[in-house]
Write a structure and sequence with these properties.
alpha+beta; Nucleoside Triphosphate Pyrophosphohydrolase; 18% helix
Length: 127
């Protein structure tokens, strides 16, 4: 099982969603910023690295929002989603096809990765 971390970043009642690149698995689906935890990294270190690599932002990692296990045809992931705050920088599309700030009620208008389904249901309840 692959350990994956992701950030739930809020601004003005909206959360940051990222659209996967066309050339990667689950192409053009929406997701939270993040990625695989590398050997020797804590979840917090991995999430800070991923946010810098993918969005050019420094974040402060907060509490665990939710954890899910999902099996795709090619990989099983344990996804740990953390509350996070941008402390420096403005999100840039360094890797993703698109990035958007979404209100919880807008979730159903976007096609997210299947692993995010239960997380999105919890977010919609916050609205």
């Amino acid at each position: 099982m692959v350990q994956v971390v992701a950030a739930l970043i809020w601004k003005d009642g909206k959360f940051l969603a990222c659209q996967r690149p066309a050339n990667k698995a689950r192409a053009l689906l929406w997701e939270f910023v993040g990625g695989k935890v590398e050997v020797g990294e804590t979840h917090q270190q991995a999430l800070q690295r991923e946010c810098m690599e993918e969005l050019a932002v420094q974040i402060e990692v907060g509490s665990l929002f939710m954890q899910v296990v999902h099996t795709y045809p090619d990989i099983t992931v344990q996804l740990s989603l953390y509350n996070a705050t941008i402390v420096n920088g403005t999100p840039c599309k360094l890797e993703h096809n698109d990035i958007r700030w979404l209100a919880p009620h807008e979730v159903d208008e976007f096609e997210f990765c299947p692993a995010d389904k239960d997380i999105l249901e919890k977010i919609k309840q916050l609205a």
